[in-house]
Amino acid sequence: MVRVYVSSVIDADAAAVWQRIRDFNALPQWHPGIADSRIENGEPADKVGCVRNFHTRDGGRIRERLLALSDFDYSCSYAILESPMGVENYTATLKLTPVTDGGRTFAEWSAEFDCEPRREQELSDQIGGNVFQGGFSALKRHFGSRR
Amino acid sequence: MLQKVVRSAIIDAPIARVWEVLRDFNSHDQWHDVVDRSRIEHGEPSSRVGCVRSFTLKDGNRIREQLLGLSDSEWKSTYCILEATVPLHRYVATVTLKPVTDGDRTFWHWESSFEAPPGREAELRQMVAEGVYEAGFANLRRFLSLGHPPLVIPAQAGTQGLPAREVRLSRYGGPQELEAVPCTAASPGQGEVRICQLAIGINFLDVYLRRGWIPGMLPLPGVLGMEAAGTIIDVGPGVAGLLPGDPVAYLCPEPGAYRSIRTLAARHVVRLPQQVDAETAAALLLKGITADYLLRDLGRIRPGTRLLVHAAAGGVGSLLCAWAARLRATVVGTVSSEAKARIAREQGCAHVIVAPDGKFADTVQALCGGADVIVDGLGAAAVDENFAAAARRCHWISLGQASGPLPPLDPDRLLHKSMSFSRPVVFDYVATPGELQERADRVWRALEAGVLPAPRIERFALAAARDAHAKLESRASTGSLLLVP
Q1: What is the set of domains in chain B, with CATH numbers?
Q2: Confidence of residue B474 (pLDDT cuts 50, 70, 90)
Q3: Which of A3, A4, A5, A7 to mutate to test the interface with B (most CBs of B within 10 A)?
Q4: Which PANTHER family does its entry note (chain A) (predicted)?
């Protein structure tokens, strides 16, 4: 089992950041690596069990199922159903925690998956770097820096 | 109604640094301004689950808190109030740290629940949230910034080698074979740190290596030296708990300390407490840890143990005498001159034998009926005398061989008094970072408490290493010799 963990501090209230990322169908609106997205079978995007079907900017198609969504914890978990990456048993969680000192947000994005041993490093780098850190960097640019 | 308080902050320091402070359940009187004095009851280790800290606040309140859980993998600690003069009932608090991976900072989450007397809920919630947690964030930030005196890091630090100087040995032999030459200190690799060295400890082991007595340990050309202290320049990947600017000391089984800058495995390195400077550390670390394992582990010194220490005024000898005297052992020391006898007496030797002729056994027998433990750095010349000075069941610890290599020992000679013999090497007693840290902590505490005397230091420039060796071998030195780059 490979584990990836990326975290960051965003200069905005957790409620505001959550509003931007809560929608399971909204990746193209905030993540620079995603081209388009739709929820299959016309289900609501916050219904646990719904499936988002999206394309990355380099053309890959990915299907992911929403496993959990908590407006109380500002957290969301999902699993990959189909992707060109070559990962198995992939689940991920994106979670926000308010930083009371300064009204900022501590954002964590973690994943667990299985893959061929020789690809562990490459996939960890790609997921942790391009996908997770890429998303956080975009959020930081969006909300700006107060410092 | 259970009250709940949650506060969190971002601390501009790596998680290992923040955790190092917070995992010590008794560190809060050092960094938190509201805490006046704190101690762990019954002398337990301050990171052992179940230990109780008993402390007073600056406002006069007294609190006893118990550590309920501690996880180094999750950076998490939970504790509760057992007893307090403030009305916080059923108070349980948890501190959790998480790394900020895109900035090498730390997220600190602090939360608690408690019951308060009716009408005082808001007041007590505010006291905990602001007076304890928020003030704690600010106080720890200040503590961390104070703890690290700014260091002038060479501008080239990073991925390149740095120009340095080292004392090279190209041929086994006398002190004259030591030569200071320019060299390059490589940038730290995986698990390594690069240290700007301020003081280098000289030990008798260095002399044995120089003479070629243990060639397997020092292939030529080589660099001597097993210990030094200084400041971290930079750290390689995978190093936790050490940062550029940290004052450190190390004890390393691979020689190579006679350098102005050294790159080595971080597992041999300990951070220095604020009250220990680099010269004291370099003079004391290896010798102090040697005294620690000799007295604690090998000699099992108890009140009344009759301990015979040779070279009682020397680097290790004087530490042994002082520490053993504090443990209420009967310490008998041998020295080669009246001047050294005075020093040995000052360090706590109950009986000092001046034995320039190497005869001491009869006097030891007359003084105390023989030795239960002998710490012998003399080697060849003292074998027969040691046998004669031993009491029944004596443990003879051969630590060095200043007078020449110890000849082969016939095990049957030990039968006569049911003696035991051991030949320890300090590095086997600090084989893990945890063990090194524990022994180093004990040495610093003994120094601070005045149990160990502040080392008497003689300094030599790096380029004068041959003079330092000549002095050590002449037996004219007392105390600790240092090279100062």
Answers
A1: 2-146 (3.30.530.20), 162-286+432-448+455-483 (3.90.180.10), 299-423 (3.40.50.720)
A2: confident
A3: A7
A4: BLL4707 PROTEIN, SRPBCC FAMILY PROTEIN
